[in-house]
Write a structure and sequence with these properties.
- The structure is a single chain.
- With 206 residues, this protein is α+β, with helices and mostly antiparallel strands.
- 20% of the residues lie in helices and 28% in strands.
- The strands form two sheets. The protein has a four-stranded antiparallel beta sheet with strand order 1-4-3-2. It has a four-stranded antiparallel beta sheet with strand order 5-8-7-6.
- The longest helix has 15 residues.
- The relative contact order is 0.12.
């Protein structure tokens, strides 16, 4: 059943996220009780919501999913609890800058179906030795052939504008890669970009 019209999502991030959330739930929010990248159904502000221990902003945080009215009440409860910690709203542009600094990829911008997880440098999420999954044999064949491109993080030596997805990377008059996304990293003071480049050039990226 499609829930897009009835459910919403809410994100809580930052160094005091655990303290703020603890004021609105009786769930065990410790690292042992609520592991990173795990999900649990917990009560927030009197409503049961699905909580995911993750943060696209790169900080300690949770993402909540549930009925719209429940998300709204949860937002109000978290906002009230967060006053003592200086909680504030932030927008999608700030989120994008923070996820660029953290190295988190964006689906359909940085994660493209024509490249495999190893070319995306997402191999830490693939257990070839211990897991069976649809497409495993094809992935093994693909990996054996070696990477066609490699996704890297780049610092752009310019301050007037961020890189844009689709822009070409040039070296000695030759196209050697393509930018997938970019933004200014305000906390690191760098113009950042992700790009697919020829594997031979990936060693100098960070």
């Amino acid at each position: 059943t499609a829930l897009s019209a009835d459910w919403s999502a809410l994100s809580l991030n930052g160094p005091h996220a655990r303290d703020v959330l603890a004021s609105c739930t009786d769930a065990d929010l410790s690292n042992a009780g609520f592991r990173w990248l795990s999900a649990q159904e917990i009560t927030v502000g009197g409503y049961k919501l699905w909580a995911l221990r993750m943060s696209y902003a790169g900080e300690l945080g949770w993402e909540f999913h549930g009925p719209r009215e429940a998300i709204l009440d949860a937002f109000r409860a978290l906002k009230a609890a967060g006053k003592a910690h200086g909680l504030a709203n932030y927008g999608s542009f700030a989120m994008n800058a923070m996820r660029m600094e953290k190295g988190f990829l964006h689906w359909k911008s940085d994660i493209l179906t024509e490249f495999d997880p190893f070319e995306h440098r997402l191999d830490r999420f693939v257990k070839l030795e211990s897991k069976d999954f649809v497409g495993k044999e094809a992935l093994l064949d693909r990996v054996e052939q070696g990477p066609r491109k490699t996704l890297v993080t780049l610092r752009i030596d310019a301050t007037h504008a961020p890189a844009h997805g689709g822009a070409s990377l040039m070296q000695d008059g030759k196209v050697v890669g393509t930018v997938t996304s970019g933004d200014w990293g305000h906390r690191v003071g760098m113009n950042l970009a992700y790009a697919f480049v020829d594997p031979a050039l990936a060693s100098g990226a960070f």
